């Protein structure tokens, strides 16, 4: 009976070690995914800012075009 507790202890140590290795690998994968997502988020924020500036430019163009259209409509009515 003196050997059985040691076998159980060694088996438990092995199981705990294998679980630690498995979850450590999962944590590394998750960390890589988070880093990649964070880089993508930064890139997307830059693109959003670029699009905002383009939208502002388009707003000005649209306003000019609507003014020109109203002038054309007024000219056509005469």
TrEMBL record:
Record-annotated membrane-spanning stretches: 6-23
Keywords: Membrane, Transmembrane, Transmembrane helix
Protein name, UniProt field: Flagellar biosynthesis protein
Organism of derivation: Campylobacter gastrosuis
Origin organism lineage: Bacteria, Pseudomonadati, Campylobacterota, Epsilonproteobacteria, Campylobacterales
